[in-house]
Every structure is written in C-alpha cells, then in structure tokens.
C-alpha cells in the first residue's frame, strides 16, 4: 500500500508536469490501484502449507487467485481508460461543431473502449469461473457442443448483439457523432452519449431523450451537422394582399445584413404561396453559421418585421374580409341572374318546358 501511495504521489506531483497522462492515471486508479496493491501484498504474505494445513492453504490460495484476477482486471481497465481520457481531452480542445473529424474520433474512441471493456470483463469472469474444478469439468462438455450453444446464445442475445453492431456501424460509418444536432421523433437536440445500447439526446429544454441505438440504423432521422454546421433560417409570414412587398423586402434585407447572426452568404424575401383562405405567404430566409445563430436570427426577423408592419403598414396584417350586401343589391343580383336565364330554362325550372305546355293545352 505504501508503494502504491508513493507511486501515485510521484505521478501526481512530479511526472504530471512533464507527462500529461500521469494526471489521468492518478484520477482513474484512485480505487483500483489500492485494491491491486492490497491483493498483491496479501499474496506475498500468504502463510505456508505447513502453518495452516493443505486444505486451508488451498482455499486461501484459491480466494487470492480470484481476487488477483479481479483487481488486476480493474487496474488494467482503469489504465486503458486513462489513456483514452488523454485522447478525448485532446480532441475536446478542438471539438466545436465545425470540427467533424474530432467529433467522429471522439465517438469512435468512446464506443471502442466500451466494447473492449466488455470483452475484458467477460474474459475475466470466465477465468474466475474456470478456477473452480467443477466448472473445468463442465467446460470440456460445453466446448464439445459449442456450436449449439453459440446458436442458442445468438438467438437469446439477438437484440443486444443488434444494438452492439448498430452502435459500431453508426460510429464508423460517420452517420452519427457526439455533439451532432439531430431531430429524432420530432425532438431537436444534441447527441450527448452514444453507448452500445442507447443514444442519449440532450433536448434544448434540458430533457434527455433515450433512443435504442438500433433505431438509428432502421429508421430515418435528421442530422443537421453531418456535412457541416452552416444552415439556413426560414421565417414564414402569412400577410394580407395589401402588404408592400418591395418595402418589406428592403426592411428585411436591412435587418439581416446588419445582424450579428447572419454569416454573410445569402438571404431572400419572396412571396411563395397564396393560401386557401386568401393570405399571401411571404418567406424570408437567411443563412447562419450554426444552429444557434439560425434560431436567433429567425426570432430576430420575426420579431422585428411584426413590429415594423404594425407600426407602418397595419393593413398588411392577416385579416378575414366579409362583404355586406343590402336587400336592394341582393334583389337586383337575383333579378339579373333570372334575366340571364332563357325562357325554355325558366319553364324547365318551373317543372314544364314550352313543348310540354303546348301539348297539354292541345
């Protein structure tokens, strides 16, 4: 234990200044280092068979072997995590939205160390089990039917294996990375964690959406930062026919070009549709450097143009028109429609045509 304490002190106060990985080793081995040191010390202090007898000595030695495997496995995993922590720390320094390569490597490192840790733990547990004579005897029979066991295990763990391979596929196909901005099941957020089982999405309102990793390989989703962070903001405004399009376009351009959230690439203001209820649909678009700037400039355009229209062109705001017709105008309209109908049609509307009436009179 004293040697472990001394080694940690040297790593933390001496080597950490010139060897950056030392601080990660110290942080990761806070418990596993002392546990491994205690087990190694206990193994060195084992009594001899003559002192305790062969039966007791065998039980103690068996327990020490199990503890040695467990403690050294934990220490090895801690050291592996320390090395990957150093890699992730270097990647996080340049891990902005625009650095897609750094975010891809960070995703792959995190996923790979989870896979490797799972394999090491399985091997360690298997090694511990095979220290028991009963399991060793059973192992020969199990190996003889390894094919059947493999099939059964594959069917039983189909979902788990599917998630495992789906996670590896996502990480190495560059379809999804940590920090990506995605829209999943109608929710907008960032990929916060990518594990062997689930993908955790941090939604804009601080909620967490946990989605099975296999869903990302079987269903479609939106990735707003797949090829880059540049994006276009869009604002749709339903307005009245009296809106002055030229003045509105000029005001929108003045606002966008002076905004700090515009990236300087392009903008436009156009009438793109006329709705069924008689409104003119105006679309204002402006490019932005990232999703944060896109959201801000969209709100800025919407808020400013609403206030500008209310102050200068209130008649441009959406409204429903109702035409009031007096009784005289309504009667004249009906009379005009009646005069436009031919005599034959008038008779037919009364139930008889002229020919019918002549035949009746005859």
TrEMBL record:
<feature type="region of interest" description="Disordered">
    <location>
        <begin position="342"/>
        <end position="362"/>
    </location>
</feature>
<feature type="transmembrane region" description="Helical">
    <location>
        <begin position="111"/>
        <end position="132"/>
    </location>
</feature>
<feature type="transmembrane region" description="Helical">
    <location>
        <begin position="138"/>
        <end position="157"/>
    </location>
</feature>
<dbReference type="Pfam" id="PF00924">
    <property type="entry name" value="MS_channel_2nd"/>
</dbReference>
<protein>
    <submittedName>
        <fullName>Mechanosensitive ion channel</fullName>
    </submittedName>
</protein>
<feature type="domain" description="Mechanosensitive ion channel MscS">
    <location>
        <begin position="160"/>
        <end position="226"/>
    </location>
</feature>
<dbReference type="InterPro" id="IPR010920">
    <property type="entry name" value="LSM_dom_sf"/>
</dbReference>
<keyword id="KW-1133">Transmembrane helix</keyword>
<dbReference type="InterPro" id="IPR006685">
    <property type="entry name" value="MscS_channel_2nd"/>
</dbReference>
<keyword id="KW-0812">Transmembrane</keyword>
<feature type="transmembrane region" description="Helical">
    <location>
        <begin position="65"/>
        <end position="91"/>
    </location>
</feature>
<dbReference type="InterPro" id="IPR023408">
    <property type="entry name" value="MscS_beta-dom_sf"/>
</dbReference>
<feature type="transmembrane region" description="Helical">
    <location>
        <begin position="21"/>
        <end position="45"/>
    </location>
</feature>
<keyword id="KW-0472">Membrane</keyword>
């Amino acid at each position: 234990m004293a040697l472990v304490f001394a080694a940690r002190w040297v790593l933390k106060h001496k080597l950490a200044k010139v060897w950056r990985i030392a601080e990660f080793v110290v942080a990761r081995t806070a418990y596993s280092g002392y546990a491994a040191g205690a087990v190694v010390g206990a193994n060195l202090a084992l009594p001899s068979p003559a002192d305790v007898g062969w039966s007791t000595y065998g039980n103690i030695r068996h327990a020490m072997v199990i503890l040695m495997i467990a403690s050294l496995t934990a220490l090895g995993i801690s050291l592996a995590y320390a090395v990957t922590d150093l890699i992730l720390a270097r990647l996080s320094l340049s891990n902005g939205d625009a650095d897609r390569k750094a975010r891809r490597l960070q995703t792959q490192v995190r996923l790979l160390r989870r896979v490797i840790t799972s394999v090491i733990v399985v091997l360690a547990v298997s090694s511990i089990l095979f220290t028991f004579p009963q399991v060793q005897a059973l192992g020969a029979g199990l190996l003889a039917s390894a094919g059947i066991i493999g099939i059964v295990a594959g069917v039983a763990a189909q979902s788990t294996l599917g998630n495992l391979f789906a996670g590896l596929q996502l990480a190495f196909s560059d379809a999804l990375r940590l920090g990506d901005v995605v829209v999943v099941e109608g929710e907008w957020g960032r990929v916060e964690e990518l594990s062997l089982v689930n993908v955790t999405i941090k939604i804009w309102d601080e909620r967490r959406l946990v989605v099975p990793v296999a869903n990302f390989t079987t269903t479609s989703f939106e990735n707003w930062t797949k090829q880059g962070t540049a994006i276009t903001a869009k604002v749709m405004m339903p307005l009245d026919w009296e809106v002055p399009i030229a003045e509105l376009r000029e005001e929108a351009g003045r606002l966008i070009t002076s905004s700090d959230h515009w990236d300087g690439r392009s903008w436009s203001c156009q009438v793109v549709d006329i709705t069924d209820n008689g409104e003119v649909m105006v679309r204002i678009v402006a490019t932005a450097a990232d999703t944060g700037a896109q959201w801000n400039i969209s709100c800025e355009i919407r808020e400013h143009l609403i206030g500008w229209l209310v102050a200068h062109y209130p008649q441009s705001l959406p409204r429903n028109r109702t035409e009031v017709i007096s009784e005289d105008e309504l009667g004249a309209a009906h009379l005009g429609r009646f005069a436009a109908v031919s005599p034959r049609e008038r008779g037919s509307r009364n139930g008889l045509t002229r020919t019918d009436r002549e035949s009746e009179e005859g």
